[in-house]
Amino acid sequence: MVPLILLTMLFVVQFSLAYYARTVVSGAAQDGASAAARRDASTADGIALADSLVEQAAGSLFESHAASASTADGRVTVRVEGEVVSLLPFFGTITVTASGSARIEQFTPQGDGP
Fold it and tell me: What are the CA-CA distances from residue 110 to residues 55, 107, 113, 114 (Å)?
């Protein structure tokens, strides 16, 4: 009975870590997209910020993590993906993914608008 309770507790902790990891990558993706969308910024700025935020907030929680960015139709999208460390040897890793988008800032002089 005790091993079953311990195993159940480990599963709860494992999925709690995955939920926290999902929250971290979601915030990093949104902040990375916001940074990449700023005027005179590049997608590399967004990727660097997203990677930095994941590393600072939960670096040891991930076996690996990566960020990528793309631009299309005046929007930048940053995608962050990571594999959560497994507490149970027979339990595979959980992959969490999130993406954030933002409209690229542009300066429009007064009177040049639609």
Answer: 42, 9, 7, 10
pLDDT digits (tens, 9 = 90+) for 1-37: 888 999 899 999 999 999 999 999 999 999 999 999 9
Q: What is the pTM of this model?
A: 0.86
Residue 95 to residue 76: CA distance in whole angstroms: 23
Q: What is the dihedral of CA 3, 60, 70, 104, to 10 degrees?
A: 110
Give Cβ neighbours of residue 111 (< 8 Å, ≥ 6 apart). Answer: none
Angle, helices 43-58/2-37, rounded to nearest 10 degrees: 150
